[in-house]
Amino acid sequence: MAFTIAIDGPAAAGKGTISKAVAAHYGFAHLDTGLLYRAVGKQVLTGTAAIEAAQNLRAEDLQADDLRTPEVAQAASKVAVIPEVRAALVDFQRVFARRSGGAVLDGRDIGTVICPDAEAKLFVTASAEIRADRRFRELVANGLRVDFETVLDDVRQRDARDMGRKDAPLRPADDAIQIDTSELSIDEAIATAIREIDARRAG
Ligand code: CDP
Ligand code: CDP
């Protein structure tokens, strides 16, 4: 049976952490759709045209190990403004979402554009400072040399670009359940998400 869980929200809100745990809990597959935009952004940094990169994207491009840098994140949010780039990535996401056995997709426009009929939708948020602090710690733990102000700037710039674009802007779907993780531990955020999804599954 296909069951789609859409998890959207701004940068470093905890979407990926919640998505992975939710997918493991229900035995569903998980797609981090940010990786699609990051993979396109990375190719643009090395000279490929954005639309061409999106149209020729291969599943193995999502496995590249240097997609998590702030430079690639910025490039991703710039290519994500281009309607032809977004259009080229729609089918892959929709096919993934409707696989039998269930799917969790996290991103910016899953509940609004990619899967408007998703059986459960979450919108995960936290304050920009808390999100930047989490991302900063994560990057440092992964050996990247960054300073906090740069990470906070990156988060704010991407938030503004993602919310301000015309095509598929970041916003909660009307029927999304909002979870503010600012004051929640990872375990509390995951438990809250599962409780809300269980309520949808029962209903
Ligand atoms: O996917 P997204 O960019 O929304 O965020 P994430 O990669 O899941 O989380 C960003 C960082 O925040 C990770 O290092 C998480 O471990 C951490 N986090 C946290 O400290 N508390 C939470 N409630 C959720 C995530
Ligand atoms: O992990 P984090 O939340 O920092 O970023 P991400 O989810 O990997 O997304 C990187 C960028 O891709 C975002 O800033 C968006 O501009 C874009 N994106 C998008 O436009 N639509 C999606 N469904 C997912 C990501």
TrEMBL record:
It comes from Thalassococcus halodurans. Belongs to the cytidylate kinase family. Type 1 subfamily. Its EC number is 2.7.4.25. Pfam families: Cytidylate_kin (PF02224). One of its GO terms (cellular component) is cytoplasm. The keyword Kinase applies. The lineage of its organism: Bacteria, Pseudomonadati, Pseudomonadota, Alphaproteobacteria, Rhodobacterales. ATP binds at residues 9-17. It catalyses: CMP + ATP = CDP + ADP; dCMP + ATP = dCDP + ADP. The keyword ATP-binding applies. This is Cytidylate kinase. Residues 5-52, 60-197 form the Cytidylate kinase domain. GO terms for molecular function: ATP binding; CMP kinase activity; dCMP kinase activity. NCBIfam families: cmk. Keywords: ATP-binding, Cytoplasm, Kinase, Nucleotide-binding, Transferase. Its main location: cytoplasm. InterPro entries: Cytidylate_kin, Cytidylate_kinase_dom, P-loop_NTPase. It is an enzyme of class 2 (transferase). It comes from the Bacteria. One of its GO terms (biological process) is pyrimidine nucleotide metabolic process. It is found in: Cytoplasm.
